[in-house]
Structures are given as structure tokens and as C-alpha cells.
Amino acid sequence: MAPIPQGGTVAVTGSAGFIGGWVVRQLLDEGYRVRACVRDTNDEDKAGFLKAMPGYASGRLTLHSANLDEAGCFDDIFKGCHGVAHLSHVSTYDDLDYVKKVCDHVINSVNQSETVNRVIVTSSIAAVISEQDIQELVRRPVLYEDRYPDEQNPKRLPERGQGYSMGKVLAERAFADAAEASGRWDAITCCPGDNVGPIQSAHQKNGGPWQHHIETMLLGKYTQNVIGAYRAWYTVDVRDVAEAHIRMLESVNVDNGERFIAWSTETRNVEDVCASIDRLLPELGFAGAELIDPLPESVQAREAEFRAIWGGCELRNDRIRETLDMDFRPLDVSIRDCVESLLSVAKIEPVKN
Asked: Would 3 be classed as within a structural domain?
């Protein structure tokens, strides 16, 4: 299908979120018209930063209330749009029938629009790397776009912590299948890594695990990584993820159902992320923080094994670099800008020497 036209109209679901807010800002910077979908346009704590963007004053940015759980909530919003960046999180990923129901009604709104010709579906690297059996990472250590978790494992179940990755895979396929059936629009998937970078609104400090982890570091205590026990952070700057969404909307070189992993290929253990704060911002006088390990003792006993398995994985982002000509910010830049935004936007008071 065709890319969206320059200066066209894009609907962004989940616009109040960490990634969604940056997609909105960068679309405006690129000259697009944006329909920002939030749960409640009157919630100033979450939508106020969008209203402060210059495009809102001129009318090039409009805000729309949409409850993702209500079928038809996007019907009127999508009409006249050329593209959709679908970043909204569902209320739970542990009920896959519910996830499919939400996908179906969003897809129905796309079909009814008769104008949308490209949808970018925001997935996650969890849909690539999340395994019920960590030994699967030893058998298949190359982490790239065509890799999926072992879906034949009978223990891969939502009640065993796999709901998020299962729900993301389900959504990827639901949109790609519907797009193929329509013959009129296509669906491209973005699988971001661990998003780090500046928040734009105070509420976003809690809107994702990674910037929240940095907040807790600043406050004096932080936890060992439990998302993939002892896995290093597979990082990407949130601004680069937003740029990737826009390039996917614009590109003539993408195909329906294609996945792109958005990550910088930089990894850093959580302890080293914390140590980076003082190294990058010595003027802050950051006192450091205490590391808490909440993992069960049986898992802690295997720490060296888990670190070795994750360390043996090969991270790849060849496809997004080659197809979309993407470059990625260094992690040091992302950490520095995240910390400064937590101080200035969320008014965090860090522990100091």
C-alpha cells in the first residue's frame, strides 16, 4: 500500500503515553496534522502537555477522548485520516479474548474510515525475546525480527507471566491479517526495546518501567531487573522510537506484516545504569542508591547462569537501519535527558551527598 502523504493527517492512540506523546510532537515537527487520542481530554494532568504544544493553538493538533474498551470509539476520529499510529495499551494482557476483541474494533474503525492506508502497530521486544524456558535463548540466541518466542511450549501461558508478549504477538497478527484481507491498507509493526529518555509530563514517570526505575534510583532505592531475570537493559531512546513510527508511516520500502525492532543495540546492567547518573551529571551531587533484589532465592542462586545466557544473546537491528536508514542516540544521552526531565518536569528531589 501507499505511504501517507507529507502533511497528511495521522491519528495517534495512546497520545498521553511516554512514546505516544513523542510521536505526536515529532509528527507536528514534521508538518503533519495530528488527532491525538486520550482517555479523557479534560484530564489536565495527562493531556495538558499536549495542549501546550504549538500545533494545538493553531488547530493542527486536535485532542479526542476515546476509551479503548468501547467499540466504535475511533469511528469518527479515523475518518479522513491517512495513517494511524496505534500505541494504546489495553487494560490487561492476561485475557487474550479481550485483547482480540479490542484489536477487532480498532480494525473495524480503520476499515470504516475508507481513508487510512497505513497503521503502525506498537508491539514490544517482548514479542521477540520473552521465553517461558530461558534455555530457548541458548538454542536460538539471535534476536531479530523474524524470531518469535517458542509458542509450542505448553507452559507459555498468561498465568505464568507470558500474557504481555502473547497479547502483543496476537495484536501484530490480527492487524496484519486484517490489512491483507482489506486489500486497501497495510499494518507495520514496531517492536521497541527498553524505552529510556525524557518525559514530557509528570505522569509519565510512572507510565513505563524504565524511566520509573531511573526515578527510584534518584530517590535512593532501585530493584534488580525482574523482566527477564538479570537481563541487561536493551535500550532505545523514546525519541528514536517515535521517529521510527513516522518513518514507517512514510516509507515506500515496507510491506504489510513486516516487523521492525527499534533498539540501539546498547545494553547496560541496571547497576551500571545507576552508576551512570553520577558519571554523566557530577554537578547533581547524586549520592547513589541501594540495589534491592526482589527475585526468589531459587532465582538468585542462578544469577550467574541467567546473566551468562542473556549475555550470549545477539541483538540485531539490521532491518530498521537498512530499510528506514535509522540511527540511534547513545544510551548516555538518553539517561542524561531522562534524569534532567525527571528533575524539571516531575520535580523529583534526588538523594544527594
From this structure: no
Position 271 scores a pLDDT of 96
Q: Decide if 241 is inside a domain.
A: yes
In whole angstroms, give the CA distance from residue 296 to residue 303: 11
Listed in order, strand segments (DSSP E) in 129-198 are: 142-143, 186-192, 194-196
Across the chain, which distance is largest between two alpha carbons, in Å? 61
Decide if 146 contacts 174 (C-beta within 8 A). Answer: no
CB 345 within 8 A of CB 199: yes
Q: What is the SS3 assignment for 278?
A: helix
Q: Which amino acid is at 75?
A: D
Domain carrying residue 279: 9-344
Q: What is the number of structural domains in the chain? A: 1
The answer to the question of residue 1 being in a domain is no
Question: Quick check: is 70 in a domain?
Answer: yes
| Distance (Å, whole) CA 237 – CA 22 | 11
CATH number of the domain that residue 142 is part of: 3.40.50.720
Beta carbons within 10 angstroms of residue 66's beta carbon: 27
d(CA 284, CA 281): 6
CA angle at 69 for the pair 68 and 75, rounded to the nearest 5°:
55
Give the H/E segment covering residue 75: helix 75-78
CB-based contacts of 320, cutoff 8 Å, min separation 6: 244, 260, 261, 262, 326
pTM, two decimals, is 0.96
If one counts every other C-beta atom within 10 angstroms of the C-beta of residue 161, the result is: 14
List, for residues 198-237, the tens digit of each pLDDT value: 999 999 998 778 999 999 999 999 999 988 999 999 999 9
CA-based nearest residue to 228, from 278, 298, 162, 288: 162
Structural contact between residues 55 and 34, judged by C-beta atoms closer than 8 angstroms: yes
pLDDT digit string (tens) for 292-334?
A: 999 999 999 999 999 999 999 998 999 999 999 999 999 999 9
